[in-house]
Amino acid sequence: MSPKVKTAAKATDKKIFVLDTSVILYDHSAVNNFEEHDVVLPIQVIEEIDNFKKGNESVNFEARSFIRYVDDISDKALINTWIPIDRKGAGQFKVILPNEELPINAEVIFGDDKNDNKILNAALSLKNEFPKRRVILVTKDICLRLKAKSLSVLSEDYETGKIKDVQHLYTGRTEVKDAAPELLSELYKSGSAKRKLLNGTAVYDNHYFVLKNGRSSALAHFDPIQKSLQRIDKISAFNIKPKNNEQAFAMHALMNPNIKLVTIQGMSGTGKTLLALAASLEQRRDFRQIFVTRPVITLGNNDIGYLPGDIKSKLDPYMQPIWDNLKIIKDQYGRDDKNYKRIEQMVENEKIMITPLAYIRGRTLTKIYFIIDEAQNLTPHEIKTIISRAGEDTKIIFTGDIYQIDTPYLDAESNGLSYLIDKAKDNPLFAHITLEKGQRSDLANFANNFL
Questions:
Q1: What is the C-alpha radius of gyration for the chain, rounded to an integer number of angstroms?
Q2: Superfamily of domain 246-450
Q3: Mean pLDDT (the chain, rounded)
Q4: Mean predicted confidence (pLDDT) in 171-197
Q5: Which residues contact 113 (CB under 8 A, 6 or more apart)?
Q6: In a 3-state reduction of DSSP, which class is residue 432?
Q7: DSSP 3-state of 344
């Protein structure tokens, strides 16, 4: 019998993926992520991307990056004909124009006042032109996916950077209810214990443990440098004391100089931002500056420039939750207390800067304690970009609630915070803690748990 020879895939086996604007604004390099298949962009997407190119927000940077990318790969070629995607094993790319002669016309069915319907027609046109190939519309707009499927057009979400099982996302901590007595004894006797005493319990670098045996218990951290469990105590920062084990773990990660990247995930009222701010103030002497930021989510595609007033008055409403947390720390002290005055002076001298993320973009962050609040509103690409700006002796903290997202094309599975938690676990520079116990008030806990 002659040996089997692997043959190239038939042209009809290659799929055609039609991308809409939401995919490009989520990931400007999306064209490169469809293996050997062909990628098509309706001309309306180019027009919509053009509308997003001005501004300082993440979508504006994605739009500009994509425009440059298309210009690079097209070079002197026309983009309304197939162009090879410049990557080994990749398919082809082109932009298509409207086709009015369609047996099923989305603009007739849904109206001609939306580009979404023109994009649907582009997919329908490709189905007619290539009846033997699978044409798939890729969009992060759920409504557009449903409309496509109602017209017999296959449609799916853009999966790159998406977490498959968010319900089992890494929490950073484990409770061991039947810990070995010798493990607890060793931790209390010497402050450390060998990993093997966990008797097979999964261990990641910088993972945290609640160890229990009868009435005995201890909190521990797996130190990747010492390669052993280290007992930890509840430490306070600027008079902010952990109220539960989860917060004690978070505070330890925030204060540990060997951990350079921290994520804290939890619903509102669990203390994420407050703990991060307090830890930054406590370590003020170890860093040149403290940056506290959050993405500015505006209504529609409007840059904050359209708002009245100077830059401070434009930004203050978006930054107010951070100021509120700083005020909680300050108000523990009287106005004549040195710590109250110290915080006031740090703000005045810009030792601590509270500013939107767009105003920090592009800077090299050297010896900075950098807190990014509401990180669930960032894409995986934005998270990567931020971390890549870290210079020597910088520590970066991402806080957020992956179930409370304000941007239309992100969800618990596709946002940057979930992506980072999943990808960074077991790295010796990284620690994560999920906070579950609300500490704001009984009323806030009622809202989070029952409404």
A1: 26
A2: P-loop containing nucleotide triphosphate hydrolases (3.40.50.300)
A3: 89
A4: 94
A5: none
A6: strand
A7: helix
Residue type, 276: A
Report in angstroms the alpha-carbon separations of 51 from 27, 113, 332. Answer: 17, 17, 47
Q: Where are the alpha helices (DSSP H) in 171-244?
A: 181-190
Confidence of residue 122 (pLDDT cuts 50, 70, 90): very high
For domain 11-156, which architecture applies?
A: 3-Layer(aba) Sandwich (3.40)
Domain residue ranges in the chain: 11-156, 165-233, 246-450
Gap between the Cα atoms of 242 and 366, Å rounded: 29
E strand residue ranges, 204-356:
208-213, 216-223, 228-231, 261-266, 289-293, 352-354
More confident position, 96 or 409: 96
First to last CA, the chain: 68
User: At residue 312, does pLDDT exceed 90?
Assistant: no
Report the distance separating Cα 139 and Cα 120, nearest Å: 11
Residue 217 one-letter amino acid: S
Q: Tell whether the model's pLDDT for residue 448 goes beyond 70.
A: no
Render 71-99 in DSSP notation, one character per residue. HHHHTTS-TTS-EE-SSTT--EEEEE---
Residue 257 pLDDT exceeds 80: yes
Range in 164-168, 223-227, 253-257, 355-359 with the lowest mean pLDDT: 355-359
Do the domains 11-156 and 246-450 sit in the same CATH topology, yes or no? Answer: yes
CA distance 174 to 56: 41
Q: pLDDT by residue (tens digit) across 341-381?
A: 999 999 999 999 988 787 777 777 899 999 999 999 999 98
State both tokens at 323.
């100021």
Q: In one letter, which amino acid is 315?
A: L
Question: Does the pLDDT at position 305 exceed 70?
Answer: no
Helix axes 58-74, 43-51, angle to 10 degrees: 130
In the DSSP assignment, the letter for residue 332 is: T
What tokens does 181 get? 């007595």
More confident site: 430 or 361: 430
Exposure string over 89-98, b if 16+ CB within 10 A, otherwise e: ebbbbbbbee
- What CATH architecture applies to the domain 165-233? Roll (2.30)
Exposure b/e, 65-77, CB count within 10 A at least 16 = b:
ebbebbeebeeee
